[in-house]
Design a protein that fits this description.
Layout lengths: L2 E10 L4 E9 L5 E5 L6 H15 L7 H11 L6 H22 L3 H4 L7 E7 L8 H14 L3 E4 L11 H18 L4 E5 L6 H11 L6 E3 L7 H10 L4 E3 L6 H9 L5 E2 L9 H13 L12 H13 L6 E4 L6 H4 L4 E4 L2 E3 L12 H4 L28 E2 L1
Parallel strand pairs: 4-5, 4-10, 5-6, 6-7, 7-8, 8-9, 11-13
Antiparallel strand pairs: 1-2, 2-3, 4-12, 11-12
């Protein structure tokens, strides 16, 4: 069996664009799909995938470990979001090929099931709330859907520091959502890597009163030593890792004891096998895995395969609603009951692309919203649930 071609498809998804990868083999009808979505750098990562195609044509797609290491080794600068996202999408597709070829789900190839479903926390539930009262009403809706926890960023357009009014507004929003959930769901506060060390410490100390599940990425991701300092000085758990791109970067996170919840992204951290290695490292430190997972349907399918076979997988990030065409562009079937997402038993990743539908939604440039005060505009007005009944 040989790789004969690699195709890419970019699909507009309102806040960003999804980047799908299709690896074709010389066996008629056998191919694999992956997702290499790199938010706001989608065309860049698409080109990185295309640059890898000549290197991979003719290789046996079943030799996943060898292919991964040769691509990583020969990327002279190594690591970083562009190479690792391109490699992640391709690597996912290779596992999909192998699962389909053997007629088993990917989790079987990675050791078999430890669970049938995984608890989920909601992202995007708040769109387009602006005031604490609006956040509270949206929170009640998300809890009624069954979500185990709700995550959001209450910090507006802040960068590095917060003035008194912005600080009070953020804490008022946290208080309103905490009251609205009334102990029925945990709350998670997203920092998006916004703050300097003293501001992160001050916020962490204030958040202690609200019994949050974790405070996510309070510092820019490059400063793991600073993150460890914040963790030592606050009495709330810290989540981190969505912008670390391989096991070597996570080694530093673990050795510095900088986080309590570990959040690699299957589309950025090297794919399924690298995520398994990171999870095993985390298990040695008795740390739970809570993957970053706010992008597209193929990444979600791959993350569910990891949830099936990873003992320390704790909680899955899930978009509560999405663009209406999400249900059209793939064969995704997401069963969601009592706050848990069920894991597909279909061969490979259990999902396929509908290319004709993807082509109806071509690339549209989107800018980062985090520092513009428009962060809650994460979904369009006609967004809807994509879960199956």
């Amino acid at each position: 069996m040989k790789i004969r071609a690699i195709e890419t498809y970019v699909c507009h998804a309102y806040r960003t664009n999804w980047v799908f990868v299709k690896v074709l083999t010389d066996i008629d009808g056998l191919y694999g799909i992956g997702e290499a979505t790199l938010e706001h750098k989608e065309l860049t990562v698409e080109q990185a995938v295309k640059q890898l195609e000549p290197v991979l044509i003719g290789k046996d797609p079943r030799n996943i470990e060898a292919i991964w290491h040769s691509v990583y080794r020969d990327g002279y600068w190594r690591g970083g979001p562009v190479l690792m996202t391109a490699l992640s999408g391709i690597e996912m597709a290779l596992w999909d090929i192998l699962g389909k070829h053997l007629n088993v789900p990917v989790y079987t190839l990675l050791g078999g099931k430890v669970r049938e479903s995984i608890p989920c926390y909601a992202n995007g539930w708040f769109s387009p709330a602006k005031t604490p009262e609006q956040f509270a009403e949206k929170a009640k809706i998300a809890v009624a859907q069954g979500f185990k926890a709700l995550k959001w960023d209450p910090f507006g357009a802040a960068y590095l520091t917060l003035d008194r009014k912005s600080f009070n507004d953020a804490i008022d929003c946290v208080a309103a959502v905490k009251e609205a959930t009334k102990g029925t769901a945990d709350i998670i506060i997203e920092g998006h890597g916004r703050f300097d060390v003293p501001t992160a410490i001050r916020l962490g100390q204030a958040l202690q009163a609200y019994d949050i599940l974790w405070f996510e990425e309070p510092l820019p991701p490059q400063n793991l030593e600073g993150l460890a300092d914040v963790r030592r000085k606050v009495n709330v758990p810290i989540g981190a890792g969505e912008r670390l791109y391989n096991r070597w970067e996570f080694r530093s996170l673990f050795e510095l004891k900088a986080a309590d919840f570990i959040q690699p992204d299957v589309s950025h951290a090297g794919g399924l096998s690298e995520m398994r290695k990171i999870a095993s490292m985390a298990e040695c430190y008795h740390l739970p895995l809570c993957p970053h997972n706010p992008i597209g349907p193929v990444a979600n399918a791959a993350t569910l395969q990891l949830a099936a076979c990873t003992p320390n997988f704790f909680l899955l990030e899930t978009m509560s609603i999405d663009v209406p065409w999400r249900k059209d562009i793939t064969t995704e079937e997401v069963k969601f009951e009592n706050g848990e997402m069920f894991i597909s038993d279909k061969p490979g990743l259990g999902i396929d692309l509908n290319i004709e539908e993807i082509l109806k939604h071509p690339f549209e440039a989107r800018e980062l919203r985090h520092y513009k005060g428009t962060l809650t505009e994460i979904r369009p007005a006609d967004a809807e649930s994509y879960f199956t009944k």
